[in-house]
Amino acid sequence: MSEIPLPRKKPVPGRDRRIPQAGGGPAHGLGLDRAVIPRRTGLQFPTHIPLSNWEGIGRQLSLIADSSAWWLGDWLVYGEKQYGDRYRAAIERTSLDYQTLRNYAWVARRFGLSRRRDKLSFAHHAEVAALTPADQDAWLQRAEEQAWSRNRLRKEIRQAAMLKNGQAPDDASGTSVKVQLNPSQEQLERWERAAREQNCDLANWMVLALETYAREITSDGAVVPELESAGA
Fold first, then answer.
1. How far apart are CA 34 and CA 91, in angstroms?
2. Distance in angstroms (rounded) separating the CA atoms of residues 228 and 94
3. Alpha-carbon distance 99 to 88, whole Å?
4. Whether the Cβ atoms of residue 116 and residue 137 lie closer than 8 Å to each other
5. What is the rounded distance in angstroms from the CA atom of residue 7 to the CA atom of residue 166?
6. Cβ density class 83-106: b for 16+ within 10 Å, e for less
7. Which residue among 81, 147, 175, 197 is least packed, with the fewest CB closer than 10 Å?
C-alpha cells in the first residue's frame, strides 16, 4: 500500500520564513541576505536574526555601496560611447547627479576592469587616479599589502610628494617638539646653504633631513655613522 503524501504546511508570513546561515544568505551575486526585504526607502527586518547574519548584511551593504560607484562610472562611460549626445538627455530623466557621475566615470576610465583591486575600495582607486599607471599600481599594491585605509593612503601619497619637493612632511599627530642646538658657525652656514638649495627655510630643511635619514635607516638597516660633534 503506497503512502499518501501529507500536504505541506503553508508558511506563516513573518514567522516561518527560514533565515539562511551566515555565508549563504545572498540570493545572488551581490544581493542581500534573504532575511531582509530591501525597499526604496529602507530595509525591512524580521523579528529576529542571528548576530552573524546581521554582520553579514552589513558587509553586503558596504560592498554594494562601494561597487555602485564602479557600476555608475562604467554605465556613464558606456552611454557616452554608445549614444553620443543622447546620453546626456537620458541622464537628466533620472535622479542621478551628472557631476557625480562624471567623477565616477573619470576614475572608471583610469582603471580597466583587470586593474581594479577587489580588496580595495573605489575611494582608494580615486586617490591615485591622477597618477601614472605605474604609480597607481605601486601605491595600490602597498595599500593592499599593508591594509591602509583611504585616509592613510592619501596621507602617504602626500608625505611622499612633500619629500620629493623638498618640503617637510606633515606631522599627523600634531606633536610639538622643542629642540635646542648649539652648532658651530661653520655647521650653521652649511645647513643654511643646504636649505637654500632646496628652497625651504632652515627649520623645514632640518625636519626634512631628519625624516629622510630616519626612513633610510629604518627601511634598509643602514648603519648610523658617527655624528660630527656640534662643537667641532
1. 31
2. 69
3. 11
4. no
5. 80
6. eeeebeeebeeeeeeeeebebbbe
7. 175
Could you state, in chain order, the average pLDDT of each consecutive group of 10 residues for the chain (232 residues)?
46 37 42 81 86 87 88 91 84 83 90 93 92 94 93 88 67 62 83 71 74 65 40 40
Q: Are 107 and 126 in contact (CB under 8 A)?
A: yes
The 10 Å Cβ neighbour count of residue 202 is 13
Grid coordinates representing 185 are 658657525
Residues 112, 120: Cα–Cα separation, whole Å: 15
Helices (H) and strands (E) in the chain, counts: 8, 2
- What per-residue string of b and e applies to 21-46 under the rule 16 or more CB within 10 Å gives b? ebeebbeeeeebbebbeeeeeeeeee
Contact 202, 195 (CB under 8 A): yes
pLDDT tens-digit series, residues 78-91: 998 898 888 888 88
3-state SS string over 123-179?
HHHHHHCCCCHHHHHHHHHHHHHCCCCHHHHHHHHHHHHHHHCCCCCCCCCCCCCCC
Q: Is the pTM of this model over 0.85?
A: no
Decide: 114 and 102 in contact? Cβ < 8 Å. no
Instruction: Please state, in angstroms and rounded to a whole number, the distance separating the CA atoms of residues 19 and 41.
Output: 23
